[in-house]
Design a protein that fits this description.
alpha+beta, four-stranded mixed β-sheet, three-stranded antiparallel β-sheet
């Protein structure tokens, strides 16, 4: 919810569009059909108006809030737009088969914008429309959507540039964090899998690839896959009876501070019984060639 009109870029034009006539059967509206949006209810059972009451910020400054600001812009009597006002019982935004244009420089369109933004059946942007199961309408601006597309393309370009610099082992570790165990010797397959991840969500790929706990997270995923670590108690990661972390990220951060446990997990993954015994003793298996070189 916007608290003051100053937070809104009123130079931007928004579009309001009907997505489906019936959210259950997902039947699209016929050409020429129309519908409308009335006030839904907030958690207190009052009309969701999208307007903010007067408030005082953390610094002690007093603000009118969007409710009083809109009353002044529309030359309405003070209190006309309060939640309990009969105004909201009659307020209705008509939506036709074609896009409805909201010019925020117009106070009436600005009120519509604030109002529909507060309704749970209105998706805020095309990305939200894809994931919001309740959405029957979509509110978006071409400018915002353009910025979003540019951001996605930039992330994809950066992701592909980064992937070109990765060695096969690092790519395998990234795939392990995704939960996909790959063979580092099958280079072309690994590269193809990495490309698929970038195409699906470049931003997520960059987040994983740049994470400082990448190697440890990959180790955890491999250990979980082999049963060396287990998930218990609603998602907590355990090594035996010991809680390593409450999710993959916290477990990785914990392991990075526990080199002994890392050695034990690696030894168990290797299946080398001697290495496992020595790891459990907190010892490192000696390598004759290295020892001879030191002499």
């Amino acid at each position: 919810m916007y608290t003051t009109i100053k937070e809104i870029d009123r130079s931007v034009t928004y579009k309001l569009k009907l997505i489906y006539a019936d959210p259950l059967i997902k039947l699209k509206k016929y050409d020429g059909a129309s519908d409308g949006i009335g006030a839904g209810l907030d958690k207190n059972g009052l009309p969701a108006t999208g307007l903010c009451e007067p408030f005082q910020d953390a610094q002690g400054n007093k603000h009118m809030g969007t409710r009083m600001e809109m009353e002044r812009l529309l030359s309405m009597a003070e209190g006309s737009l309060k939640q309990r006002s009969v105004f909201w019982l009659r307020y209705f935004v008509d939506v036709h088969a074609d896009d409805i244009t909201l010019d925020l420089s117009d106070p009436h369109d600005l009120l519509k914008f604030l109002f529909v933004s507060a309704q749970s059946i209105v998706a805020k942007g095309k990305k939200d429309a894809e994931t919001n199961a309740k959405a029957e309408y979509i509110l978006y601006s071409e400018e915002d959507e353009a910025k979003s597309r540019i951001k996605k393309r930039s992330a994809k370009k950066e992701a592909y540039r980064l992937s070109e610099e990765l060695d096969p082992e690092t790519m395998v570790n990234i795939l392990a964090v995704y939960g996909e165990i790959a063979d580092a010797t099958a280079v072309n397959t690994v590269i193809d899998m990495i490309d698929q991840k970038i195409e699906e969500n470049a931003a997520k790929f960059l987040s994983i690839a740049k994470d400082g706990t990448l190697v440890t997270q990959a180790l955890i995923r491999k250990a979980l896959d082999k049963g060396v670590l287990t998930v218990q108690n609603g998602g907590a990661i355990h090594h035996g009876d010991v809680v390593v972390g409450f999710d993959q990220k916290s477990a990785a951060e914990s392991l990075q501070k526990n080199s002994k446990l890392v050695t034990i997990i690696k030894a168990k993954l290797s299946g080398d019984m001697d290495a496992i015994k020595e790891a459990l003793k907190g010892e490192t298996k000696a390598k004759p060639k290295v020892a001879a070189a030191k002499k």
